[in-house]
Amino acid sequence: MLNKINKFKDIWNRFVGKGIYPHELSFLLDTQLRKLILSPKQLSNYLHLQENSIVLEIGSGPGYFSVEVAKRIPNGFIIIFDIQKEMLLRAGKKIKNKNLNNGFLLQGNAERLPFLQRQFNIVFLVTVLGEIIDIENCIKSIYEILDFGGILSITEMKGDPDFLSFDKINNLVTNYNFKLLDKFESKNGMTINFKKV
Predict the structure, then answer these.
(1) Nearest CA among 43, 37, 47 for reference residue 186
(2) Domain spans of the chain, in order of start
(3) Greatest distance between any 2 Cα atoms in the chain
(4) Are 114 and 105 within 8 A, CB to CB?
(5) Does the chain have fewer CB atoms within 10 Å around its N or its C terminus?
(6) 80: β partners
(7) Are 189 and 169 in contact (CB under 8 A)?
(8) For the segment 95-143, what is each residue's pLDDT rounded down to a tens digit?
(9) In this structure, CATH architecture of domain 32-196
(10) Do 79 and 55 contact (CB within 8 A), yes or no?
(11) CA distance 189 to 184
């Protein structure tokens, strides 16, 4: 009984505090109410996707945005990347249930991205950047794997314990030769796109 109480406390602390979102509560990330805040279609509209885009989603969680992105790039593919295997399994089920064959799962740490230089056209993170311990190393790694002219898209939502302000993100990212491309704001948060120059 004590073990169950301690496990619940740990899950709750990760849910309300800083750090990696607990996979045990991943069902909350799939609620229909989330569409009122930022829908997969809306985010996909912000990403400058082309039919042949090569995309990396860092911190995919249960794949809430992954399916819509995969649908929009029928001649490209998306790597669905998360540190938690349990999140990837949920995302993989969604991709399979939609009969999509261009979504690939990979578990790993965003501080050390295991990809070739200039491999991706678009890298996006939704409420994830603040969860990463070494953000600067993550940004540097993203810069290396993005092609020239490629887009880094960062979405932050108000109320997230790991929320990063526009100024903080802009300062971090522009230190690595990214240039501000777009900024989409709402009362709930923002999506900021940067271009690799």
Answers:
(1) 37
(2) 32-196
(3) 55
(4) no
(5) N
(6) 57, 105
(7) no
(8) 999 999 999 999 999 998 999 999 999 999 999 999 999 999 999 999 9
(9) 3-Layer(aba) Sandwich (3.40)
(10) yes
(11) 9
**Taking residues 54-64, what's their average pLDDT?**
96
CB distance 164 to 137 below 8 Å: no
pLDDT at 13: 57
| Residue 84 in tokens | 């938690």
**Distance between alpha carbon 96 and the CA centroid of its chain, in Å?**
20
Q: Name 85's Cβ contacts closer than 8 Å, sequence gap at least 6.
A: 107
C-alpha R_g of the chain: 16
Q: CA 189, CA 197: separation in Å to the nearest integer?
A: 26
Q: Which pTM value belongs to this model? A: 0.88
How far apart CA 31 and CA 27 sit, in angstroms, is 7
Can you spell out the DSSP letters for the chain? -HHHHHHHHHHHHHHHSSSSPPGGGGGGGG-TTHHHH--HHHHHHHTT--TT-EEEEES-TTTTTHHHHHHH-TTSEEEEEES-HHHHHHHHHHHHHTT-SSEEEEE--TTS----TT-EEEEEEES-GGG-SSHHHHHHHHHHHEEEEEEEEEEEETT-TT---HHHHHHHHHTTTEEEEEEEE-SSEEEEEEEE-
